[in-house]
Amino acid sequence: MSEELYVRDLWYMPALSSSLKAGQMRREMLLGEPVLLGRMRDGAAFAMRDICPHRGVPLSAGKILAENTVACPYHGWRFRKDGVCSAIPSLVEGQEMDPEKIRVRSYPVREQDGLIWVYVAARPGTPPRTEPPRVPVEKPRMRWTETQTFPCDIDHAVIGLMDPVHAAYVHDHWWWKRTPRPKQKQYAPLPTGFVMTKHKPTKPAYSLLGDVTTEITFELPSTRFEIVEGQLFGISFKVIGLTVCTPRDADHTDVMGIMYWPGWLNFIYPFFWALGRTFIADDRKIVELQREGLKFSPNLMLIQDSDMPAIWYHRVKKAWAESTENGTDFVNPVQERTLRWRS
Ligand code: FES
Ligand SMILES: [Fe+2]
């Protein structure tokens, strides 16, 4: 595909809040770039380029100081969380140099719903065009999570995720499988993606929750929410499944599955504990297999209607990239539509 692999001016999710304690930092690859992700001693999460502007040493090998700066391990230059250099220890009196004129690229960070979002601007320093997605429920509590690294670029990870017909083959388990039958689903555009509108799911696993509806959203760069709504014992509930693909580089994409549900629904936890990892591993294994074919750079196909979500993904991505490039408004190319397939 000739389009750019990465879209910018968007929020990416490299880590869970719980993975970063105060005073910790580490290198996180993001869109092929080394990013220093850390948490200052005062609790503030931050992200900056993991390359010291002095002589290129990774700042992640340095220290977080009590004063809430990062000290480079080579000559001790200190950087605040906004990337501004606050001190150059080697300077002596009379050497007039303002360290604050030196800065390392910093990335806007938001922390919400137990997730750390990092904004990757097309032009470093420009303010975010959007805010990161919110988990669509009040006071979301993360109940289950699993991350696996897929050996592929973000496109193949995303397309695998939204593929409506692979389940019978890839997720070939008694607790998930169903004899394929004709389906038809309604889709509508969202601000930067599209939604499979609310419907009654047919997979038997959903019956754990009684009579429910589900709705599946996708928005750039790779946020998929499945919102399951129902009623049990007269109480309404929402179970939210969030899947995010975080592109590390052209050959590695982290697929992160996260579940949110109200505490009284905890009886569904064993289901995720026992099967959630297997489910994501199914998708990872097919990508590992796919890599054996892709290394010969074959031409690929996207056929309608079952590949229409993938076609839309490419169209939305391209339109977003153009709006970013030209500074124009984004116009979503997706139209409301019914898709039909057998699965
Ligand atoms: S390389 Fe970082 S302070 Fe010199
Ligand atoms: Fe899958």
Mean pLDDT: 96
Coarse structural class: alpha+beta
CATH class of the largest domain: Alpha Beta
Q: Name the CATH architecture of the largest domain.
A: Alpha-Beta Complex
* Order of strands, widest sheet: 12-18-17-16-15-14-13-19
Radius of gyration, whole Å: 22 Å
Roughly what percent helix? 10-25%
> Major β-sheet, in short?
8 strands, antiparallel
Number of strands: 19
**CATH fold name of the largest domain:** Naphthalene 1,2-dioxygenase Alpha Subunit, Chain A, domain 1
Large-scale geometry:
globular
Notes on the structure:
The protein is an alpha+beta fold and 343 residues long. 17% of the residues lie in helices and 34% in strands. It has four helices and 19 strands. The chain has helices spanning 154-162, 167-170, 269-294, 308-326, and strands spanning 10-16, 25-30, 33-39, 45-49, 63-64, 70-71, 78-79, 85-87, 106-107, 109-112, 115-120, 142-150, 182-190, 193-199, 213-219, 223-232, 235-249, 252-260, 337-342. The strands form four sheets. It has an eight-stranded antiparallel sheet. A hairpin with a 5-residue loop joins strand 5 (63-64) and strand 6 (70-71). The radius of gyration is 22 Å and the shape is globular. Bound molecules: FE2/S2 (inorganic) cluster (FES) and fe (ii) ion (FE2).
